[in-house]
Design brief:
elongated, mainly alpha, Serine Threonine Protein Phosphatase 5, Tetratricopeptide repeat, 61% helix
Length: 173
């Protein structure tokens, strides 16, 4: 009986000593990912690359719902956007206003980033909280030549929405 108690005590004490390490690793990972958001927001490409190499999460969202890719698109930092996409940044994550990175690139006129995002499969027909799409912002803010270029990219890389009928024979996307 005494041996059983000793074994249980050793197992429990080992578990208790590893708990702080588990929490420290989680905190460290979140801290690194927050640093990635800050680096993207500040345009610090070398820091972005270093943090991604150290397993920072490229899809971590801040309190506004923005990811590092949102900030790269918002501020027009194409080398950071490209690096984030190489590390599997998610194009579909929406911020607090339900804007994707493509929305932000088109709202602020960063058409090179918009082209990059479209080439990687961003959906120009995704609506934000106000019902606006990236296509809407392209038509509203871009020159004719940019509109033409982005429409060519969309025709090459973007799959058209599939229109189907629901059980009540109404059209749905």
């Amino acid at each position: 009986m005494r041996l059983k108690t000793i074994i249980i005590t050793l197992v429990l004490s080992n578990f208790i000593f590893t708990l702080p390490n588990i929490f420290a690793a989680e905190y460290s990972s979140n801290e690194i990912s927050q640093q990635l958001i800050d680096a993207a927001q500040n345009g610090d490409h070398p820091a972005v690359k270093a943090l991604l190499t150290n397993d920072a999460n490229p899809n971590m969202q801040d309190s506004c719902g923005k990811t590092p890719l949102h900030y790269a698109a918002n501020y027009g930092i194409i080398n950071i956007a490209s690096t984030l996409l190489e590390h599997e940044a998610d194009l579909t994550i929406k911020d607090g206003d339900e804007n994707t990175p493509l929305h932000l690139a088109t709202i602020y006129g960063h058409h090179e980033i918009a082209a990059l995002l479209l080439e990687h499969g961003a959906d120009p027909n995704e609506k934000n909280i106000y019902g606006k799409t990236a296509s809407y912002f392209i038509e509203k803010h871009a020159s004719e030549s940019i509109q033409k270029k982005l429409k060519e990219i969309m025709s090459t890389y973007v799959k058209p929405a599939r229109i189907t009928k629901d059980k009540n024979y109404k059209y749905a996307r």
